[in-house]
Design a protein that fits this description.
CATH topology: Carbamate kinase
Number of helices: 9
Protein name: Carbamate kinase
Structural class: alpha/beta
Strand content: 15-25%
Number of domains: 1
Family: Belongs to the carbamate kinase family.
GO molecular function, one term: carbamate kinase activity
Catalytic activity: hydrogencarbonate + NH4(+) + ATP = carbamoyl phosphate + ADP + H2O + H(+)
Pfam families: AA_kinase
Order of helices and strands: EHEHHEEEHEEEHEEEHEEEEHHEHE
């Protein structure tokens, strides 16, 4: 796969979990649509690494185990294991979707999913102030019973809709499987990695410093940005449910943005122009990536316009 002159060599494409739909059937359809654009990037001579969100998917898995536990006593499944399951089945759909597209084009490239752990700092301040809601809703009485039985779990009222467990959202520090990912890239694999921001793990010094999972959620955009840096990528694509980053979003004064410097994007983010739990993490990740090395660009756009975004006809570019 030779690289045309002037084309970026290594690209990380991050697919938003919500953009993949809310059911396995929706996910397969959207993955198939995205596969066409992904293969187009490779045909231009680029290496690609794919990462993805998993919010709806991991929630579905965890809720299913919780319901089965209440109904028939199935063992509960904690967040790290649910995250690993979501990485596996989303990766499976991506491998099949890309495989179908390769078959249409008579290509024989390899594609592999890496179940990916990301090391976090056990002293990260977020562990003292968990805020990320996960899992099903409970009554206040049920939540108090669970907290009494399992003091490490924290539940809060979620906007009057019921009580939900909250977990930490620590900063990602190290991709445990980075050598494996790079090895696959060097051998011309299309790699799927760091799904859902990666599975958070910490060192277990009671067990020779081996890794153990922790109930936390790494922001998927922060995980994707770390993956792009570790893989020495030139471009980071963040594909989501909207076509552009916008100011005054959802108002009559909404203005779509197409090209921003990292400094301009940071000023708007500091002014609160972007949604805290939706667009702002993407913009912050884009700023960090654009500043990490001269010439790097992050492009934020819509998954259903992936081909247009990747060819420069849609989306918002953030650069140094």
């Amino acid at each position: 796969m030779s690289k045309p002159l002037g084309k970026p060599d290594r690209i990380v494409v991050a697919l938003g979990g919500n953009a993949l739909g809310n059911t396995p059937a929706e996910q397969i359809e959207r993955v198939n649509n995205a596969a066409h654009a992904l293969l187009g990037l490779i045909e231009q001579g680029n290496e690609i690494i794919i990462t993805h969100g998993n919010g709806p998917q991991v929630g579905m898995i965890q809720n299913a185990f919780a319901a089965a536990h209440d109904a028939i006593g199935t063992p509960e499944m904690d967040l790290p294991e649910c995250g690993a399951m979501s990485q596996g089945y989303i990766g499976y759909h991506l491998q099949q979707g890309i495989g179908r597209e390769m078959h249409k084009r008579y290509k024989r490239w390899h594609v592999a999913t890496v179940v990916t752990q990301i090391e976090v700092d056990p002293e990260d301040p977020s562990f003292q102030n968990p805020t990320k809601p996960i899992g099903p809703f409970y009554t206040e009485e049920q939540a108090n019973e669970i907290m009494a039985a399992e003091p490490d779990k924290v539940f809060v009222d979620d906007s009057g809709r019921g009580w939900r467990r909250v977990v930490a959202s620590p900063d990602p520090k190290k991709i445990v499987e980075a050598p494996s990912i790079l090895n696959l890239l060097d051998n011309e694999f299309i790699v799927i990695a760091c799904g859902g921001g990666g599975i958070p793990v910490v060192r277990d010094y009671d067990n020779k410093g081996c890794y153990k999972g922790v109930a936390a959620v790494i922001d998927k955009d922060a995980g994707g940005e770390l993956l792009a840096e570790d893989c020495d990528a030139d471009v980071l694509f963040l594909l989501t449910a909207v076509e552009h980053v916008a100011v005054n979003f959802g108002t009559p004064d909404q203005r779509d943005l197409t090209d921003l410097t990292a400094d301009e994007a940071e000023k708007l983010a500091d002014e609160g122009q972007f949604g805290k739990g939706s667009m702002e993490p993407k913009v912050r990740a884009a700023i960090k990536f654009a500043r990490s090395r001269k010439g790097r660009t992050c492009i934020i756009g819509a998954l259903d316009k992936a081909a247009e975004t990747m060819s420069g006809l849609s989306g918002t570019r953030i650069h140094g």
